[in-house]
Design brief:
Blueprint: E1 7-13, H1 17-28, E2 35-39, H2 70-75, E3 78-82, E4 86-90, E5 95-98, E6 103-111, E7 115-117, E8 130-132, H3 136-146, E9 151-155, H4 159-170, E10 174-179, H5 191-203, E11 207-210, E12 214-218, E13 225-228, E14 233-235, E15 238-241, E16 245-247, H6 250-254, E17 263-264, E18 276-278, E19 283-287, E20 292-294, H7 299-313, E21 325-330, E22 333-339, E23 346-350, E24 358-364, E25 367-374, H8 377-389, H9 395-399
Parallel strand pairs: 1-2, 1-6, 2-3, 6-18, 8-15, 9-10, 9-15, 10-11, 17-19
Antiparallel strand pairs: 4-5, 5-6, 7-16, 12-13, 13-14, 19-20, 21-22, 22-25, 23-24, 24-25
Bound molecules: flavin-adenine dinucleotide (FAD).
Residues 13-19, 38-41, 48-49, 51-52, 85-86, 112-115, 133-134, 160, 248, 251, 280-282, 297-300, 302, 326-328 line the site of flavin-adenine dinucleotide.
């Protein structure tokens, strides 16, 4: 039990990927000060990516989700306060107030509060069996309920919606995806990559409704159908809403930190308040590959931002300049993305559509700025380096699958 008025060298708010990675990284770098890792979820830090994939398909259980086993945290002298949200952050007096009534001071405080899911507000949106998928509790209740339903609607054809759709198909459920845009993954990838994933879903029996929003959920105590804006009715006993997240900035805003679609930070993840950092999904940093402030939602970014913050805390300034990366798994397709395809003026195709490996390489004025690689891990790794170096290889070498991308690095 922690004492009232204890002062910690570092208090981390949020025990997701970024918070856990920071605590781990600090110890790896030799930091000997006291660390408190707080998390409102009453569970040890765990991996979120499997929630829509292997965990949803019942291939792995809770234990395999853990980022580190129980004893790791004790061995590393990282104090945990799980199931205990931070209710208040006082920036000027440098303390936090926990949900269990304790008030704890800090020298450094790091916000790693992640994101909160967006919810639909239409008629019937509060019916049971309409779920979001952000945390383990969500995944558990969806998984439990899956055994009792056969018809599922997925609202939103982003990564999480599509990954869940693939998992539900693998479990033999009937799946309909509803998307307001005219294709899948419109926010993050090009039409060519989107069409490969969409075709794979169609081959596996998924039905799509594009250009349509939900106007109402219908059911008498339980979901029975979904009405689309064009009047179409979709029978469904369960709906998964994957319409994105917003940064969780509540504490930061109340504490008076600068926020704008995320907690605003500099390239070392320092907020507008001295001694307070913000990392992972909740932060918006100056990204050299975006050329502006950017908020990234990925495990890689959670990890990299935690490393940069850990360096700062131990007194080594190492401004963040990592190439953003992301991955997704749907059926037997593994998509790995590096860089940001903003303002690409050319898309170079490497491979033949209809087979893998297949890549879309994005360039701007000849410079490689991003890649989407499907079942092409070597190309992904090489392109990440080309992006980091700002390389401008010949277009013909990028398209020629007989020339390894590695040889262009
Ligand atoms: C289903 C799913 C699948 C995904 N798949 C992939 C993938 O394949 N590849 C990939 O790169 N990324 C994937 N992601 C995204 C990735 O998991 C996130 O980018 C990553 O978890 C961000 O880490 P974070 O620590 O910033 O936030 P989170 O992991 O969301 O952790 C934030 C934590 O802070 C806690 N918290 C919030 N407020 C408070 C408070 N006041 N007090 C205490 N605790 C608080 C929250 O409860 C939460 O536990 C996936 C995400 C989900 C949900």
């Amino acid at each position: 039990m922690l004492n009232q008025n204890t002062i910690f060298d570092v208090i981390i708010i949020g025990s997701g990927h970024a918070g856990a990675a920071l605590a781990i990284s600090l110890r790896k770098k030799g930091f000997t000060g006291s660390i408190l890792l707080t998390g409102e979820e009453a569970i040890l830090p765990y991996e979120r990516p499997p929630l829509s994939k292997e965990y949803m398909q019942g291939k792995i259980g809770d234990e395999q989700l853990l980022i580190r086993p129980d004893e790791f945290w004790t061995d590393q002298r990282i104090t945990l306060a799980m199931g205990c949200a931070v209710n208040e952050l006082n920036a000027s007096q440098q303390y936090v107030a926990l949900a269990d009534g304790r008030t704890l001071g800090f020298n450094w405080c790091v916000l790693a509060t992640g994101g909160k899911v967006r919810r639909l507000k239409c008629e019937g949106a509060d019916l049971p069996s309409i779920h979001s998928l952000r945390n383990l509790a969500d995944a558990k209740s969806i998984r439990d309920e899956l055994t009792e339903v056969s018809k599922i609607a997925v609202i939103g054809a982003g990564y999480i919606g599509l990954e869940f759709a693939a998992s539900a198909r693998e479990l033999g459920k009937s799946v309909t995806v509803i998307e307001t845009q005219d294709r899948v993954l419109s926010r993050v990838t090009s039409p060519v990559i989107a069409s490969i994933l969409e075709e794979q879903h169609i081959r596996h029996g998924v039905t799509f409704h594009f250009g349509q929003g939900v106007s109402a959920f219908h059911g008498d105590g339980a979901l029975q159908s979904i009405a689309l804006e064009d009047g179409t009715t979709i029978p469904a006993q369960m709906a998964i809403c994957g319409i994105g997240i917003d940064a969780e900035t509540g504490l930061a805003e109340t504490a008076g930190l600068d926020c704008d679609q995320g907690v605003l930070v500099d390239s070392c993840f320092r907020t507008s308040s001295p001694g307070i950092l913000a990392i992972g999904d909740c932060s918006r940093h100056p990204n050299p590959f975006a050329g502006s402030r950017w908020r990234l939602e990925s495990v890689q970014h959670a990890q990299d931002s935690a490393e940069t913050a850990a360096d700062l805390i131990i007194g080594e300034i190492s401004p963040y300049a990592q190439v953003p990366t992301f991955w997704s798994q749907q059926y037997d397709l593994r998509l790995q993305s590096a860089g940001l395809n903003i303002d690409a003026d050319d898309i170079i195709i490497r491979g033949a559509k209809g087979s893998t490996p297949f890549c879309a390489i994005y360039t701007r004025k000849g410079q490689v700025i991003a890649i989407d690689a499907i079942n092409a891990p070597r190309d992904f790794m090489a392109a990440r380096r080309l992006i980091q170096q700002g390389s401008k290889p010949d277009r013909s070498s990028l398209t020629d699958i007989d020339i390894p991308l590695k040889s262009l690095v």
